[in-house]
Each structure stands twice: as structure tokens, then as C-alpha cells.
Hints:
It comes from Stieleria marina. Helices cover about 25% and strands about 25% of the residues. It is α/β, with parallel strands linked by helices. A 9-stranded mixed sheet has the order 1-2-8-9-7-6-3-4-5. The radius of gyration is 17 Å and the shape is globular. The two termini are about 25 Å apart. The structure holds S-adenosylmethionine (SAM).
Amino acid sequence: MSLGDQNDNPVEEHECFHEDGSRVVYLPVTNRIADRKIRTQAIISELIASDGGERILDIGGNEYQSFCQEQGIEYTMLNLASPQRTGTGGYHGGGMTYDGRTLPFPAGETFDLVILNFVLHHAAENALPILRQVKEIAARYVLIGEDLTGIDYAASWHDRNHKHQPGGVFRSDQEWRLLLSMFGLPVLRQYVIRREDDVDPGRVYRCMYLCSVD
Ligand SMILES: C[S@@+](CC[C@H](N)C(=O)[O-])C[C@H]1O[C@@H](n2cnc3c(N)ncnc32)[C@H](O)[C@@H]1O
């Protein structure tokens, strides 16, 4: 199956499998950003037992603070010290801060789940060093959200990406899957995010990769 071969796919949620056996979940078509948050909460609940002893690190995000508190999960937020000066990504801070490249945790400190949702394309010079360090501090899972692209995507999507993060690095699905496995973070499951304003419903513009730690 090639990701995006979905011309006959319904707008409702459905699933299929990559050749390597990993599962692809096509989320329902929606424009509600809250749906992604609800889905991520469901992933967190599924992965992390709510016994008060589990730890999550959210790099570049702050969306799951109250949810984790309710579930008895320790939730650590890490972001740049100040908002980026360019682009439309916004600033989802409020927790720890760092220089954007070197994670500020002592050797041996780990988190059960590290979330990097829609962050790495903003960190053009730092994405690979961050991934390498995430592999070291993630004990069980890593969840990575990304905006996808390719040279055959519509020019309007390239324009959107440039406005979203001038100088950002946007990759294809194939590139992300290979990169993640090269970093020892093979994809277990992929969630395809589909929006009503997707330029071409047959293509994938955004997705989340749930990775295990080798
Ligand atoms: C589009 S927002 C994503 C927010 C949230 N994770 C979500 O899923 O909605 C991008 C975030 O990445 C942060 N960011 C950019 N470069 C970063 C870096 N090198 N390290 C950590 N966070 C970074 C920005 O400050 C912003 O909070």
C-alpha cells in the first residue's frame, strides 16, 4: 500500500497496513483541531497506565497538562525560552525551557512517552540532534506529528509550508519512516490526519507516527 492511495477511502475512520506490517489509521476528515487533541489523549491512555507512576515529556507542546494531571501521569513540557520570530507555529510553552538543541536532562533520566507533535519541521537545524537524544531518553514510546510533503505536492501546499515555517524542513512520509527507523525508533502505527481543506484528498498532509524504542 502506498500512503495516500485513498481515492476510494471514506471520510470516516478506517485502517490498513504498510508492507512492513505497521498499522495506518486514517482519522475521520475534520477541521476541528480539538479532534487531534482528543485522539492524542486516547493514545496516551492506551499506552500509559494511569497508576500515577508514569512520565511523559512533551517537547514543543503544552496540550495535555490537565489531562495528565487527571490521569495521575507526570507531564513535563519543554520548549524554547521564547517564541520563534518567524512562521505561524505559535508558542505552546509554560514548562521547562532550553536552547532548542540540547535536551536539558541528566544522563539516565527517562520518560515512558516522548511527544514531539508538529515541532521538528520548525527546528530545521536541530531536528536530527533532537531525535538522537529522544532515542536516549524515551523508555517505551515516541509520538511524532509532522506535516508531510513531496516535490509532486501542489504549489499551494509548498507556499503554506513556507509561510508556516520559513526555512523549515518538511519531509515525505517515506523519508520520515526511514529516518525514524535509522534512529532506532521504528513506526508501530501511523495516524493520518485528514482535513476538509486538504488540497487533494488523495494525498496525506499531516500524520502522527507512534514509534517504539529499539
Ligand atoms: C506548531 S507548534 C506545535 C504545538 C503542539 N505540539 C501541537 O501539537 O499543537 C510548534 C511548537 O514547536 C516549538 N518549537 C520550535 N522549535 C523547537 C525546538 N527546537 N525545540 C522544542 N520546541 C520547539 C514552538 O515553540 C511551538 O511551541
